[in-house]
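seq as requested:
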Amino acid sequence: MSRIHPTAIVDPRVELADDVEIGPYCLLEGRIRIGAGTRLRGHCFLQGPLVIGEGNDLWPFCAIGVAPQTLHFDPAMDGPGTIIGDHNIFREHSSVHRAIHETEPTRIGNHNLFMDSAHAGHDVQMANRVVVAKGAAIGGHAIIEDHVIIGGNSGVHQFVRLGRGCMLSGSGGTALDVMPWFLVTLLNVAGSFNIVGLRRHGFTPDQIDTVRWVYKLFCRSGLPLAAATEQLRERAGDPVIDEYLSFLSKSSRAICTMRGRRDGRERAEPAEAR
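C-alpha cells:
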C-alpha cells in the first residue's frame, strides 16, 4: 500500500502504485500516474497530465509537469503533459515543464540525474543516463541523446540536438547541434572530444581513433560542412561513422565546431585530441 504523509495534498485523480511514498507537504494536482517504488521525499510539486515510471527519487522543491514559462501559454491548459521513465533522480529545485503543443508530451527517459536547480523546458525529448548538472538549463524542444553530460550552469538553446556521449563543460553552452562524443569547452565551441567518456563506454583504441578523425575533420580541417560530410560518407559502413551520418541526417541546425570561438585566435590543440 502506498504511504501518503498526512500533510500531503493529493488530487483524487492521482493513481499510485502500491509502494509509492508521498512525503510531507507534497502537492499532486491533476491526472497523474506514479509507478512502483517511486519516492517523493517532501515539498514536491507535480502537475498532470503526468506519468512517472518506477523507482524514481524526487527531492524537496522539485517541480515536475508544471506549465511552460511562455507568455502565450495558458497555465490552465493541460496539453499532452509529461512522461517520466524509470529510475530518475530529481534533486532539490529541479524542474521539468510539460509540452506546449497538442501532439507529443515532454519526455524524460530512464536513469537520468537532474542535479540541484537543473531544468528541462517544454517539449524536451531526453533519452537515458543523461546528467544535467547543478544550475544547467535545457531550452524547449531540445533533443538529448543517451549518456550526455551537461555541465553546471551551462545552457542548451531551444531546438538544439545533443548527440550521444557529448559533454558541455561547466558554464558553457550551445545554440548549435553537438555531434556525438564532442566536447563543448566554450559557448558554441567544440574544443575537443570526450575521450574519457569513450573509454568508460568501452570504445576500442581503433574506435577512439575514428572519433578523433571525425572531430578533426569537422573542427580542425577548415572544410565546409558539406565537404566534411562527403568525406565522412566515404567511410560509411563503419558503425562509428554511421552514427555520425545518422546524427547529421537528423540535425536541423548548424553544427558546433571550432568556428564558434570568439577571439579569432587559434588555440593549442588539447593533448587528448591530437
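The CA atoms of residues 212 and 231 lie 14 Å apart.
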